[in-house]
Write a structure and sequence with these properties.
- With about 290 residues, the chain is α/β, with parallel strands linked by helices.
- The chain has two domains: about 200 residues, 2-enoyl-CoA Hydratase, Chain A, domain 1; about 70 residues, no CATH class.
- Helix content is about 45%, strand content about 10%.
- It contains ten helices and eight strands.
- It has a five-stranded mixed beta sheet with strand order 1-2-3-4-6, with helices on both faces. Strands 5-7-8 form a three-stranded mixed beta sheet, covered by helices on one side.
- Helix 3 links the parallel strand 3 and strand 4.
- The chain is globular, with a radius of gyration of 22 Å.
Amino acid sequence: MNRLLPTLLTLVLLAALYQNANGQAATVEGHVRCDRSCIIIGLQVKGEIVTETVSAFQNLIGEVHRQAEQQKKEVGISLLNINSRGGSVTEAMVIGRLVRKEGIGVNVDPSDVCASACVLILAGAMMRTFIDNVGIHRPYFEVPAQQISSEAGKASYGAMLQDIRSYFREMNVAENLADAMLRIPPEDVHYLTEREAKAYGLAMIDPVFQETLDLKQAQRFGLDRREYVKRKALADRNCQPPTPSVTGVSEVVPALNRWSACIDETLKTGRAPPQAIPDFSKHGTPAPGR
C-alpha cells in the first residue's frame, strides 16, 4: 500500500469545524431595548463561526445585563436569528452554552440555513423554530501545516466527537446525532426532516425546559397536574404555533406572542379562545358555536 495513503485518509477524515485561520468572523448584530424587561432586539448571527463571533456575542450579552442592572429591570428572553454554514465546533459550543444560560430562542428563517457547527448553537436553544434548513455532515479539521500521523489524527477526532456527544447530552439532544453527523461526508450535507429533528431532540422546545415550564404554568394557574394536562392538550389542538410561512424576525415575534396568549387563555379558562378556532362556515361546514 502507498505509504501516503493513510496520511491522505487522515486529512480527509479528520474532523474540524475548528477555526479556519483565514476565515472571516460572522456578523453579530443587535441592540438592547429596555421596556418591562431588557432584551436584545434584532439579534442576528450570520456567517462563519469563529473566535471573533463569540467575543461579539458575549459583548451583547454583557450589555443587556449592564443596562438591566442600571435600570433595575429583569433580563427578558431574546430571539436569535441565525444564518450560518458552520465554523468552529469549540466556538459554537461556547455560544450554544450562552444561548442556553440566557434562555435565548433561536430561529432559522426559511430562506436561511443552519448547518455544520451552527447545529450546536441551535441545540443550545430551549426554543427553536426552523423548517427543513438544518444541515449536518461529518466535521473536519483544516489541513495542518505540520506533519500529522494517523494515530494523532484518530485521537484528535475521537476527542472531538466525545466533546460533541457530551455537549448534546448537556443540551438534552440525542448523542446519536453526533454519530449521524459522522456518517455524512462534508461535501454532502444532509438536511434534517421534521421527524428526524424531533427524533434527535431538536424539537421546537427542549424537553427538560418544557417540563419545567409545565410545572411553573400549572402553579401559575393553580392547577393540579391532571387538569393542567387536560387544558394543555386543548391548547395544543387549538392554538396555532408559528408556521413556515413566517419569514422574518419581525413576523416571528408577533406570531410567538399570539401563540403564547392563546395558550395562556386556554390554561386560565379551560376553553380555547374564539380566535383560536378556525371558521369553516364559508366552506359549507358551520364553525363550532355558530
